[in-house]
């Protein structure tokens, strides 16, 4: 969702944005007849419905999709849950459903050509939340972009390959200035 928000801000306030770093991002979260870089819409709608029955289990399933089996074995998922989710953090079903509605309905594909700022796209080649095809699509549409596909990574390469990730961003920022 973060990349969608960043892209939207770049479109709304282009004069304030000097560059974008898009991590595990997409311009459209769900598939369309002409776009296969997303999850099937029915899957996301099913996830939204399951929030009312069992929000905890739904979040656990979603979190497990964020990581490869190796990342889970290495404790990256646990590290994410401890470090990025505040203890006792609870989102209401309404907030979670609104987030899923945003993901279901947002489609920035036709607007990407308006984004002119330098963009760095970092994506895990085993991302199940935003498939690698989404990153390739972004790269093709954002004319001033670089794509770094990280092997063996899921949706959070900044955790699973932190040193490599940080070096990529550092080099890109150095080149930007």
UniProtKB/TrEMBL annotation:
Any GO molecular function: hydrolase activity
Key word Hydrolase present: yes
Pfam families named among the record's database cross-references: Abhydrolase_1
GO terms under cellular component: membrane
InterPro entries (UniProt xref): AB_hydrolase_1, AB_hydrolase_fold, AB_hydrolase_sf
Keyword terms, alphabetized: Hydrolase
Highest taxon, organism lineage: Bacteria
Protein name: AB hydrolase-1 domain-containing protein
Source organism (scientific name): Desulforamulus profundi
